[in-house]
Write a structure and sequence with these properties.
Blueprint (H helix, E strand, L loop, with lengths): L1 E5 L3 H10 L5 E6 L4 E3 L11 H7 L2 E4 L6 H10 L6 H8 L1 H10 L7 E4 L5 H8 L3 E5 L9 E4 L5 H8 L9 E5 L5 E9 L5 E3 L3 E6 L2 E7 L6 H18 L3 E10 L2 E8 L9 H4 L4 H9 L12 E8 L14 E5 L9 E9 L2 H12 L10 H7 L2
Parallel strand pairs: 1-2, 1-4
Antiparallel strand pairs: 2-3, 5-8, 6-7, 6-8, 9-10, 9-11, 9-13, 11-12, 12-15, 13-14, 15-17, 16-17
Length: about 375
Amino acid sequence: MKALVYGGGQLARMMYLAGCPLGIHVRAVDVNKDQVINPISKTPAKVTLAEAVDDADVITVEFEHVPEHLLKLADETGKLKPGITAIRAGADRVKEKNLLASLDIPTSEFRVMSNVSELPEIVEQLGTPLVLKASRDGYDGYGQWRLKDKSDISELSLALSKLDLHTVPIIVEKMINFSREVSLVGVRSQTGEFAFYPLVENHHHEGQLHLTIAPAPQITENLQAQAENIFKKLAEELDYVGVLAVEFFQVEEQLLVNEIAPRVHNSGHWTMQGADTCQFENHLRAVCGLPLGSTELRSATAMVNIIGCGSFSRDMLAIPGCHIHWYGKTARAKRKLGHFNVSASDKATLSSRLLELQKHLPEESFPLLKSLAENLQ
């Protein structure tokens, strides 16, 4: 089988690697150039985009911000999985919020702002503190602002006045006093079968995911069931095929959706060592019409992102259960260059292995690792 992936980053790379044992040949598309590339070497393929689209059995995406002309091209073939509606919802917070509202799925109270003059009235309606998010193209903390008090309205309005809010509106959300962020990665097959990985706990620094713990500590059956029911609502409404990630804020025993990602997801990288079938293989199985793989947990696992730091020894590979996944990128600030997966039979052993990992890494690039490892004990 042949799969074409829109996007040429690390997620396409990992889909390629997962596809090889299955006999699925994966090509990628540099969506900035409309150019077909090898997902590993990034070298141009000797085929045109039109030829690759025609040759593919299935077309999928590694990220949701795909140019509209490419989405339409794939959609017209009938090969695009997940479908265009799901991808558009993941790319546009207005569409995403409206989808959640239409399904009565709990999320933060919000307003859509298309003119900065609307901000004072929205503040009166929602109160403070507020978080403001660009409806498109914002990720890893970019395209976000905070409003802590009404006295900050003038300063924030001045900053936002430089933006074209008619083209890219802003979602203004009431800030939620949540205890933690968790996420659910699941998969739906072409025949409507579901499979779910356990809820995981995510930890961010400066707007970027730095570390994921799987399974999330102290997850009740009620929380897992809430997450799976919300996933099913979304997937059935969208006639979804493939892996979908749903991020939640936990407030006591309730989960509120923060956002959805219609693709394989950073918080699911732990599955490469920690689950029977990784998210990349399960995504390919789903979109190619193959039986889904087991999502059974193999071991407690922590995924640690390598961000902006390309210079360290590999001595940590002597730690039992420690695996490195390198993406082959040039280092620069805030760029995800790879990740570690560290697995263990129990949380106490996982804690000790993460503390050992921390000794091999510069603290400034891994600021959360030591404290989170100690908290697992």
